[in-house]
Specification:
about 775 residues; mainly beta; Nuclear Transport Factor 2, Chain: A; Beta-galactosidase, Chain A, domain 5; 3 domains; 21-stranded mixed sheet; 38 strands; globular; disordered C terminus; binds 2-acetamido-2-deoxy-beta-D-glucopyranose; binds copper (II) ion; signal; DUF1965; quinone binding
């Protein structure tokens, strides 16, 4: 979530794919494994075959910008006739106007639904562009919408203000805009002059290390500063932490902080605010030096210089585990792929499911028009923001809040390693996004695969007094399709999973791995996290990942029904001896107004999005339940100055709003530096509108309270750091949607003890690879 601030993403981002071995390597290994099974028919194994193709019913109306569209938009913006007076970003200074980034503008739902459902023409595509306007009298960042595309005489460039409710539309004050390369460069002379002046002090404290400037070869300290770097855009500041350089510098922080003011575009006015070290504040160089000379500054521990301990490679010193030289079990689509794809339209069909994917440079992968058995469940399902807020006794941890969309989280979704990040044989898709006048490709950065759930979807054995103890036994295979991407945003690797289950339920999971943003270890500050290395403390923090679920259960008019479990005292005449006694019942009502709310204590409430006018065969209203999963949390601090009003979406478990074309996102991508005067204030969505029988949107949070631990070294583990939620049919159907699955077994034993075994023609022999006889599947029972 956090980059050394000299990184200017829009300019320097490159796909890391070239570092990843070609997929073919592991595929060959896979084939070798199966060839050893002496089957001669495996030359074109269904394990490695591409998925079958299908044709999306509609051209994807949410698609990103094609390379030629991006180029045309770029050229239009840079055409002097546009009046934008743009400078080439690679040469830009603070006082120039230049493009930050370009992406596709989301398509309005009110234009898409008629196209999907009523044969209306495909909505026009638009681009959005954030332009840094340092050349203006009052410098700012202004967002524009450019369209319709393709660029023609009708194409206009307009300010994109409509989706921001903070009062300044698409304009963000200079002091709050993204801290890019030119801004970082502008602060470096001040930092270099201050740090050179005290190089003897840093050398004495930190094993000879000093900072003389970002390009000075003598520098052997690196610096980092996070966000926010402004409260309301009237001023800007950097709380800089120094670290030892190296691949794991997040894990080797030092106890030295430099605070500077960097307000405005004139770098000659930037100034020193002070230093922090040894848990003390020194407003001037003179005061720091006086303390140093009085012998009051010393490090109790040296930070480690060799950070090999923080690399995710094999560590033989941990010992040997018996049989670990063998290949671990793997998910393999051994019956052949059971999903179909329209790659051009990013459209997927799987076991009754169908949906479109798209990609945004800030939000990553997004899902649209999610249907099950032809009926719409969700119009949109998308990640909206990944927030992290830290705690600590120094000016880095205590004031750090990240919004990862600010760092363009989507562009940080990188190549996935087959067999490890995703199963062997998965489908891999590229993602693309604009980079100046060209289009960047992150290869194989989305994977799609079907996985064994490793437990049956359903099973039952009916008891009987025969020798086998049952008269019939049914068990249904559990499988799901997963769409996955992993965004490495600075220190963290967020894994986003969307899991489409056979029964029509949909699970959203986020996991976190990667480096802790750690602090120097202070023995007296255990309340902010444990010591995890010689001189490193794992800093306590919250991760809150906000999602949007625009449910359209069989159409747009939906309600959010709450069924609260209540204990009530009542009496029943057939239990006269009990008098009044307590039992539970449901208090059922529809939420009336837009609101933010939390899961009920003890989870004693069920939330169902239903269509008030659609009933199943039993007369029950058809809906989908929101089932909380693991670690469904909100921010721990609700009144921190660092996240006061720009992170409202992270402050409740759930929220429900009326869908509006001008409220497409929970957050804006440059909101992080405006905690007191947000560009986008999520809490303003809640203005008393009715949500009963309306087009409603559910916003939900996943996340983790990250109670850091030694086992976060070298990196946080996905086993523990994960959070999930399930959307499950609730009276949506007349019965469970497992009856139509052939991947099942049905075993019956008649009165004479004769067993019949039904496999519906599906066994391990379906794929060209024959492994075993199907009866083996049932273990003891099959051999009867
Ligand atoms: C596989 O093919 C080889 C030679 O091509 C043959 O010798 C062998 O018997 C075959 N094995 C089976 C199981 O058919
Ligand atoms: C265009 O921007 C440059 C700085 O990049 C500035 O010097 C110049 O005055 C601007 N021109 C106009 C017409 O605003
Ligand atoms: C270092 O800082 C001190 C205190 O501000 C100042 O007096 C001195 O001139 C500076 N020295 C250099 C070489 O900049
Ligand atoms: C930093 O560089 C100086 C000068 O080369 C050297 O003496 C010192 O050991 C280095 N310290 C670290 C921590 O790299
Ligand atoms: C993109 O911009 C660069 C630098 O201005 C230029 O050299 C290149 O020709 C442009 N590419 C296209 C396709 O216009
Ligand atoms: C993915 O990107 C790579 C590298 O640019 C390219 O060779 C490949 O054709 C792309 N795949 C698809 C399906 O576009
Ligand atoms: C039911 O009555 C008992 C006895 O009066 C009381 O202790 C209990 O709190 C009541 N429960 C509820 C749910 O009101
Ligand atoms: C989308 O809807 C908003 C709000 O109604 C409107 O201001 C905007 O112009 C629409 N966008 C397009 C591309 O029509
Ligand atoms: C449900 O149907 C009734 C009767 O047809 C209609 O009056 C009402 O507006 C409908 N409600 C919704 C939310 O569609
Ligand atoms: Cu964490």
């Amino acid at each position: 979530m956090h980059f050394p601030t000299f990184t200017y993403l829009a300019l320097t981002s490159v796909a890391i794919s070239s570092a990843v071995p070609p997929l073919g390597y592991d595929r060959r290994v896979l084939r070798d494994i199966f060839d050893k099974r002496e089957n001669n028919e495996t030359t074109s194994s269904c394990l490695t075959e591409a998925a079958l193709t299908t044709k999306a019913p509609k051209i994807n109306p949410w698609a990103g910008l094609a390379p030629e569209e991006n180029l045309a938009v770029w050229n239009l913006l840079h055409d002097p006739a546009s009046g934008l007076n743009l400078t080439d970003p690679t040469e830009a200074k603070l006082t120039d106007n230049y493009v930050f980034w370009v992406d596709a503008l989301h398509t309005n739902k009110s234009d898409v639904l008629p196209y999907l459902d009523e044969g209306a023409p495909k909505p026009s595509k638009y681009a959005r562009a954030i332009i840094f306007e340092g050349g203006k009298a009052e410098p700012d960042s202004q967002e524009y919408m450019i369209g319709p595309l393709p660029v023609s005489a009708e194409t206009t460039i307009e300010k994109l203000d409509y989706m921001y409710n903070g009062g300044s539309g698409g304009s963000v004050p200079f002091n709050a805009r993204y801290f890019d390369g030119p801004r970082s460069t502008a602060t470096d002379p001040l930092i270099a002059s201050i740090m050179s002046n005290i190089s003897d002090i840093t050398a004495a404290l930190f094993q000879g290390a000093a900072y003389y400037g970002s390009t000075d070869e003598r520098s052997n300290l690196t610096l980092t500063s996070g966000t926010p770097l402004s409260f309301d855009g009237t001023s800007a500041f950097r709380s800089i932490m120094f670290r030892f350089p190296g691949p794991a510098s997040y894990m080797t922080p030092l106890d030295f902080f430099l605070l500077i003011d960097c307000t405005g575009t004139d770098a000659s006015l930037y100034f020193l605010k002070g230093f922090v070290t040894n848990e003390k504040f020194f407003p001037t160089i003179a005061e720091l030096r006086a303390a140093f000379e009085a012998g009051e500054l010393a490090m109790e521990y040296d930070q480690t210089l060799d950070a090999d301990w923080a690399l995710v490679d094999y560590k033989p010193e941990l010992g040997v585990r018996d049989l670990e030289e063998r290949l671990a079990p793997s998910t393999l689509e051994i019956g052949g792929k059971r999903y179909k794809l329209d790659e051009e339209n990013r459209y997927v069909e799987y076991m009754g499911w169908s949906f479109y994917l798209t990609f945004s440079r800030t939000l990553g992968i997004m899902f649209y028009d999610i249907k099950f058995k032809g009926e719409r469940i969700l119009y949109e399902l998308s990640m909206q923001e990944a927030t992290a807020q830290y705690g600590g006794n120094q000016p880095k941890a205590a004031n750090t809040v990240y919004h990862d969309t600010y760092y363009q989280l989507g562009t940080e979704m990188g190549s996935l390693l087959e067999g490890f990040d995703c199963p062997w044989g998965s489908t891999f898709w590229n993602i693309t996004y604009s980079s100046y006048n060209t289009t960047e490709v992150n290869t194989n950065s989305i994977c799609i695969f079907e996985t064994d759930m490793n437990f049956p979807l359903a099973r039952h054995r009916t008891g009987a007094s025969n020798d086998y103890g049952f008269s019939n036994l049914g068990s249904v295979k559990g499988a799901a399709l997963i769409v996955r991407a992993i965004a490495t945003v600075g220190n963290y690797d967020y894994m986003f999973d969307y899991s489409f289950h056979m029964d029509g339920s949909l699970e959203v999971i986020v996991r976190a791995s990667g480096y802790l943003q750690s602090s120097f270890y202070y023995p007296d500050q255990g309340k902010f996290g444990p010591r995890i290395q010689q001189a490193t403390q794992g800093s306590l923090h919250d991760h809150i990942v906000t999602y949007k679920a625009d449910f359209d259960i069989l159409g747009t008019p939906n309600s959010l029904q709450v069924s609260e479990l209540k204990a009530v005292n009542q009496s029943q005449p057939w239990f006269p001896e009990l008098g009044t006694f307590e039992q539970m019942e449901m208090d059922i009502h529809n939420m009336q107004e837009e609101q933010q709310f939390n899961y009920a204590a003890n989870n004693q409430a069920m939330y169902v999005v239903l269509n008030p006018n659609a009933t199943n065969a039993w007369g029950e209203k058809r809906g989908y339940r929101i089932v909380p999963g693991r670690s469904d949390i909100h921010l721990s601090t609700l009144n921190s100055p660092w996240s006061l009003k720009n992170s409202e979406f992270a402050k409740s478990h759930l929220a429900v709003t009326r869908q509006h074309d001008n409220e497409p996102f929970a957050n804006s991508v440059q909101n992080i530096n405006l905690p007191w005067k947000p560009q986008q204030d999520f809490s303003k969505f809640f203005d008393g509108e009715c949500v009963d029988g309306e087009d409603l949107v559910v916003w939900f949070n996943l996340g983790m309270h990250h109670f850091t631990r030694s086992e976060d070294v070298p990196v946080t583990l996905y086993t523990e750091a994960y959070s999930s939620i399930v959307f499950a049919p609730q009276n949506f159907f007349d019965r469970a949607q497992d009856g139509d699955l052939l991947n099942r077994r049905w075993v019956q034993i008649d009165d004479e003890g004769k067993m019949t075994f039904e496999d519906y023609g599906v066994g391990l022999d379906v794929c060209p690879i024959v492994l075993e006889e199907p009866t083996e599947l049932l273990g003891g029972v099959g051999e009867l």
